[in-house]
Here is the input.
Amino acid sequence: MPEEATQAYRFGQARAARSEAMLEDYVELVADLLASGGEARATDIARRLGVSHAAVIKSIGRLKRSGLATANPYRGVFLTEEGKALAKRVRRRHRIVVDLLVAVGVPIESAESDAEGIEHFVSEPTLGAFEKYLLDKR
Here is the structure.
């Protein structure tokens, strides 16, 4: 069993990652919607995430308070520079995780689905190891 402080630190990291995962999903989706259609409306976000409109409105408020997005009534959501940078980091993590899963034999559909969870919890050292493994395989 790990030392008490080590175990507490690990569980704390996991709790923090869970808290950030939702924000990261929203930022990534908003970036994708803006890139594909020039607009990220709450109704579109709700449909794509499979959540209620009210949940999206609450989360948009959290994005705004965190400095990741701006929104005006009836105008949709837009990412700040900080939000765009986060979306880029999340997309990169997602891509590396998917590529690793596919490289070890996971079917692409499963890899894409599994990466939606893994991408939020993988540490930078682990992600770096994944990336190195993928580069060495090429």
